[in-house]
């Protein structure tokens, strides 16, 4: 965009003035890991923010100033609610009064591994009902390229208004990394792609109010693809690290030492680590949005499928390791007690969606093991419709277990205590790698 065009575009867009003056009203649809921190950031900057969710408990929680997302402090929500800059509701009728509406709804996969964009479609239909001129609509949910202009745009244009002319439409991928102490909604660079330059400019102006590093790209499709490249990159590299771990095991080499050594190269290498499998709402799912779309256009994506295949074998690999450890002590998995440490999909968070721990526990139970778990951030989990509660990480439970398995390397765990009080420990994350001394009862991936 050249400066001359920029100026012209800005003059013809009164919404931009409203945003710059912080007079724009903002609605966020979906108050989860992505939507809630976004609401708080805009509210902190003086915007009037309305969060909309179908989950009554979440709405009530926000209005009471109680956070249910680890990275958002209750005190911050409380302040915003108190000064009336943030409220949560379940009623979509307020959408017509907003200047900007941001969708942060889930994008799961169906059992067939096909994208389920029904949440985006539902939210778009609700927006269309009260769409008015000069509104900005942004999608943040991860999805396949083309969702914004092929799916959302026609739904919104049923209102009779024209996208890019009467109202503005853009995609901006969310990169939030739950549990990350350094990077958050306000300082992770934000990519933005509108369906036309006016939409990009308007969305860029909005996000620039809460983030100093906003990167416009040429279209919503490019922005959608940026997110899928990032998550595919992670999935493929984690799969490579996982396969390295398997090969190192065959060759009796310590994979963790190998990665540490390779990471000393100051260019051309970036360390990724093996683990018990991938989890969460992004890496196991998002790349398959791309394979699906690519297949529709006649191309079968190979890296994504292979990475998915390798990553999916890891929970079984971990169970096989437990069986081997027990076997080396002349014990059978059937009847043994296994204590799983950490069920969240990653360190220091309480999110166990798609966590490999669930599959591992389920396989262990199927083989006849008595399974307990501890997670300081997860009070209970559902395994095959049965509720399991987190047990105290006590000397006695460690002592009566035949094997303790570290699935999530939470920072608060005292690994020395775990090792000293366990008969055998399988460490799938190298959480014990930094401890001084050698421990004969510890086995690493
Ligand atoms: N969690 C992450 O770390 C992360 C990171 C980057 C991108 N994303 C992407 O962001 C999107 C949202 O993810 P999330 O983790 O915040 O999900 P989430 O499940 O934590 O939150 C989604 C919220 O949307 C609500 N919701 C569902 N349908 C609704 C509707 N029709 N109207 C209003 N509210 C509705 C749900 O009740 C829930 O509170 C997904 O596409 C995800 O892939 C997530």
* Secondary structure: number of strands: 15
Specify the CATH class of the largest domain. Alpha Beta
As a percent range, the share of strand residues is 5-15%
| Mean pLDDT reading | 95
Largest sheet: 8 strands, mixed
**Annotated CATH homologous superfamily of the largest domain:** NAD(P)-binding Rossmann-like Domain
Question: How big is the Rg?
Answer: 24 Å
Trace the largest sheet across and list its strands: 3-2-1-4-5-6-7-8
The rough form would be described as elongated
Structural class: alpha/beta
Identify every distinct bound molecule in the structure, by name, code or SMILES: nicotinamide-adenine-dinucleotide
CATH topology of the largest domain: Rossmann fold
What is the first-to-last residue Cα distance? Answer: 51 Å
Residue runs with pLDDT of under 50 for 5 or more positions: none
Provide the number of structural domains: 2
Q: What is this entry, summarized?
A:
By secondary structure, the chain is α/β, with parallel strands linked by helices. The protein has helices at 3-11, 14-20, 35-44, 56-63, 74-82, 118-129, 147-157, 197-208, 220-251, 255-262, 286-296, 302-328, 356-366, 395-400, 415-420; strands spanning 25-29, 48-52, 86-89, 100-103, 136-139, 168-171, 190-194, 214-216, 337-341, 370-374, 380-383, 386-389, 403-406, 425-427, 442-444.
Walk me through the structure:
The chain is about 40% helix and about 15% strand. It is α/β, with parallel strands linked by helices and about 450 residues long. It has two domains: about 5-220, 3-Layer(aba) Sandwich (Rossmann fold), CATH 3.40.50.720; about 240-445, NAD(P)-binding Rossmann-like Domain (Rossmann fold). The strands form three sheets. Strands 3-2-1-4-5-6-7-8 form an eight-stranded mixed sheet, with helices on both faces. Helix 9 packs across helix 11 (about 285-295) and helix 12 (about 300-330) packs across helix 13. The longest helix is centred in the middle third of the chain and has 32 residues, at about 220-250. The chain is elongated. The N and C termini lie far apart (about 50 Å). The structure holds nicotinamide-adenine-dinucleotide. Nicotinamide-adenine-dinucleotide binds near residues 29 and 35.
């Amino acid at each position: 965009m050249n400066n001359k065009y920029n100026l012209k575009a800005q003059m013809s867009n009164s919404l931009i003035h409203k945003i710059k003056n912080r007079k724009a009203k903002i609605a966020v649809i979906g108050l989860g890991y992505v939507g809630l921190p976004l609401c708080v950031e805009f509210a902190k900057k003086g915007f009037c923010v309305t969060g909309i969710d179908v989950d009554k408990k979440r709405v009530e929680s926000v209005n009471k100033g109680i956070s249910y997302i680890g990275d958002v402090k209750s005190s911050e929500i409380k302040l915003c609610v108190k000064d009336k800059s943030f409220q949560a509701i379940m009623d979509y009728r307020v959408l017509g009064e907003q200047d900007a509406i941001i969708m942060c709804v889930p994008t799961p996969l169906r059992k067939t591994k096909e994208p389920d964009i029904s949440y985006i479609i539902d939210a778009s239909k609700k927006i269309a009902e009260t769409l008015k001129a000069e509104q900005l609509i942004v999608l943040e949910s991860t999805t396949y390229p083309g969702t914004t202009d092929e799916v959302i745009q026609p739904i919104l244009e049923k209102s009779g208004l024209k996208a890019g002319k009467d109202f503005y439409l853009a995609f901006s991928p969310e990169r939030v990394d739950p549990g990350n102490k350094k990077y958050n909604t306000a300082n992770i660079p934000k990519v933005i792609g509108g369906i036309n330059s006016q939409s990009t400019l308007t969305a860029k102006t909005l996000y620039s109010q809460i983030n100093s590093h906003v990167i416009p790209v040429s279209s919503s499709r490019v922005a959608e693809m940026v997110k899928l490249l990032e998550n595919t990159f992670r999935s493929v590299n984690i799969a490579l690290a996982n396969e390295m771990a398997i090969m190192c095991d065959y060759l009796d080499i310590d994979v963790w030492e190998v990665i540490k050594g390779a990471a000393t190269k100051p260019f051309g290498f970036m360390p990724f680590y093996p683990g018990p499998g991938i989890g969460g709402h992004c890496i196991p799912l998002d790349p398959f949005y791309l394979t699906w779309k690519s297949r529709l256009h006649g191309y079968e994506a190979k890296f994504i499928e292979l990475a998915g295949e390798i990553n999916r074998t890891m929970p079984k690999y971990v169970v096989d390791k437990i069986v081997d450890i027990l076997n080396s002590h002349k014990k059978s998995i059937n009847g043994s007690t296994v204590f799983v440490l950490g069920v969240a999909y990653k360190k220091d968070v309480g999110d166990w969606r798609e966590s490999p721990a669930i599959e591992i526990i389920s396989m262990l139970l199927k083989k006849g093991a008595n399974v307990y778990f501890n997670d300081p951030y997860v009070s209970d989990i559902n395994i095959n419709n049965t509720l399991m509660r987190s047990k105290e990480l006590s000397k006695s439970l460690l002592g009566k277990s035949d094997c303790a398995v570290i699935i999530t390397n939470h920072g608060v765990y005292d690994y020395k205590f775990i090792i000293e009080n366990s008969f055998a420990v399988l460490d799938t994350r190298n959480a014990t790698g930094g401890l001084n001394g050698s421990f004969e009862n510890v086995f690493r991936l």
